[in-house]
Write a structure and sequence with these properties.
disordered N terminus, mainly alpha
Length: 467
Amino acid sequence: MNATSFARTKRRPARERTGFGARLTAPLLLGSLLNPLNTTMISTGLVAIGHDFGVGASDTAWLVSVLYLASAVAQPVLGKLADSIGPRRVFLGGLILVVASGLVGALAPAFGWLLVSRALLGIGTSAAYPAAMAVLRDESTRLGTPTPRTVLGRLSFAALGSAAIGPTLGGLLVATAGWRAVFAVNVPVAVIAYAAALCWIPKDTPRDRAAPGRKGTLDPLGIVLFTGALSCLVVFLLDLRHPMWPLLVPVVLLSALLTRWQLRHPHPFIDLRMLGTNHALARTYLRHGLSYLVVYCVMYGFTQWLEEERGYSSLHTGLVMLPMSLAALACSLIGARTKGIRAPLTVAAVLLAAGSALLLFTTGTTPLAVLLLAGACFGIPQGLMGTGNQAAVQQFAPADAIGSAAGLQRTAQYIGAITASGLIGLAYGRRADDGGLHLMAAVGAVLALALVVLTVADRTLRRGPAE
């Protein structure tokens, strides 16, 4: 190594600290935690909302599904938009929508306004993660050095950690300030993130807004077809007690049109050709979606059962879910330091099966210790699945499409959550009871066992992530 190279190596840590310091990353982390936090924070407020507006579990499930539907579409769209007009603009625009959604939800006079709030929240919070990745990419290009792994690790931990503490935080807010606080809390957080981003995130450069190949790649028709097919599927899933079979006709037709269009478009909304040849990545999406289907059945279904069948308050329900949150936080750190992929994902699938088996025999008189153990059985997989499947995406996705691949991973997660909402509506109807919990647990056990087989049999997972 010559003197010049040695000098550059010595200077690199200082440059990384300067370019990727707290001022740049703080607003990115703060904005990126809003979406996963809001996916779980509302879980301990659904019963209170239902009581205030006179609606049942099948209706409040829409509050979950609307956010996931909006997020499933908005994540990849806003990621492409960040590349087209600049990540800073998209980041700030998303935070404005978050403020609006918080005000609408906190002041909602009717249940329908809460659905509007959650839709705005899904779109607004979806801007943060892809825009943050684009900001880091641009900073990496400016410095001529890769984004430090510690920075990417903090971004991942912010998402996992905020989702994990959501039920406990939501229970605390509902117990102390009412369910409207679950919506209102987004306003100050978004305002702080906006002010920090305005001051510390570099302005978008002309290259960011007009780089070759970035314009005209949003595929509006693909977005419309995907949104239409997914919306019809969501409406069908959320009333499985009285299924509207005619809705499956537009689902099939729109899906067929979407497939045909995506295969012909030069810059498709969903790259079906890549997924058709990259079986390892496709299995990763399937594994991720099934995992979170099971997790979110517990996240929303178990919390409602604790309040309505067990008789716990929102605060006590949040405290019962605390072991799950702490286990998820701890295992997200452990999973980030694990070199292999198959082992942590296998452990996660086995624990999901064990937790589902415990809930299958849970009743209103089950000892509290068993409930805490069941929560932990679902918390540990959250941390291991998040980091394990993220590593799999990084390993199997094409190098030039890692951003869109990560967005599709989130979309798979949201579709799993939407399906979980439909299952909750089928199991509970207007009230969470033992029978409904056992139905969800049985489905969760079957899916978890399928995950075990899918993970163990996947030979591509035997290799560790590429260095």
